[in-house]
């Protein structure tokens, strides 16, 4: 093992923190003094200090004060208004194409089922990565079984991700739908979404992007890519809190064409008419199902305020610096990096390989150093740019040495 020079790395971390234009943002988050290094902000972001007050205000004023009147006054419109805000701030999506509600899993099902149902029968393959996040794989297994389609798995490098060339090899006249993660949950590989979307379209099929690990850490340009569908969660980088609702994007051209399978009253035209028979609402509202999770969007709303202030480009710049620093320390400790080395192909987290990863992570958690364990031998280091300092990265990674 090479000698890591902890003092030198700590000094570099201190300098990087002094030079960091976003350094002050960290003070806006609740930082537990027992947590030496939080390296899982890509799985569950820290809460902002203002979140507790925002929740209390919501309970006392909006809910307690407005009661049932709140629905007409603001909550019925919330799924689309919040969707538009998220779309404008972080998704590169023009208004009217994004909703907030349900969970990512439920939205993957709704969108994938709608897209596959709309494909002609000879398009009998759903294309996906064999290393995508488990819920994506399971849901698509279910959609394939329900619709009589088969799954076309792209064999994926565990330390990398899916390239445009690999997609080009498998798409064609049999493709019904392609579902891929923009940033992969394991290695942090950042896919070339624009190129892949073009390739899938050339094959005559739509693509659904899973943005769970990219939203709030890397710029996303759904409209510019020409994306068809996208989903993502809000409890990772966006700090929506445990189980906060997900979002879905459906490009305007698919409204009124795709038909989603969970046809509840909130997706019906004029739900409060309580009329006989389902007919889809106009526009993106047809992808809603039931009563939206209003209460659960409060932390997300204050999280978006911070993104509005800072901007995604500054967040991405810090994210690149954080992951580069993590790779530098891993190299100094002679730990194998199982993530892309090219920052342009890397999202906001880095996975390191360790033969005793499970035991090492368990021991680190005892000491207030909190990375994630990824079976069989991965230690995943997630670096939420708004709430992670370089000093924290140095302390956390030196603890691995
Ligand atoms: C976190 C994550 C999910 C989570 O789905 P839930 O329905 O919120 O459990 C889905 N896909 C990817 C790629 C993820 O990283």
Automatic annotation (TrEMBL):
Q: What cofactor is this protein dependent on?
A: pyridoxal 5'-phosphate
EC code(s) of this entry: 3.7.1.3
The record's listing under Pfam families reads: KYNU_C
Q: Does the keyword Hydrolase apply?
A: yes
Question: What is this enzyme's catalytic activity, as reactions?
Answer: 3-hydroxy-L-kynurenine + H2O = 3-hydroxyanthranilate + L-alanine + H(+); L-kynurenine + H2O = anthranilate + L-alanine + H(+)
Say which domain of life the source belongs to.
Answer: Bacteria
Pathway annotation from the record: Cofactor biosynthesis; NAD(+) biosynthesis; quinolinate from L-kynurenine: step 2/3; Amino-acid degradation; L-kynurenine degradation; L-alanine and anthranilate from L-kynurenine: step 1/1
Q: Which SUPFAM superfamilies match?
A: PLP-dependent transferases
InterPro entries for this protein = Kynureninase (IPR010111), PyrdxlP-dep_Trfase (IPR015424), PyrdxlP-dep_Trfase_major (IPR015421), PyrdxlP-dep_Trfase_small (IPR015422)
Key word Hydrolase present: yes
Which Gene3D superfamilies would you find in this protein's record?
A: Aspartate Aminotransferase, domain 1, Type I PLP-dependent aspartate aminotransferase-like (Major domain)
Keywords for this protein: Hydrolase, Pyridine nucleotide biosynthesis, Pyridoxal phosphate
Q: What does this protein do?
A: Catalyzes the cleavage of L-kynurenine (L-Kyn) and L-3-hydroxykynurenine (L-3OHKyn) into anthranilic acid (AA) and 3-hydroxyanthranilic acid (3-OHAA), respectively.
Q: How does it assemble?
A: Homodimer.
Q: Which family does the entry's similarity section mention?
A: Belongs to the kynureninase family.
Protein's UniProt name = Kynureninase
What is the originating organism of this protein?
Actinomycetospora atypica
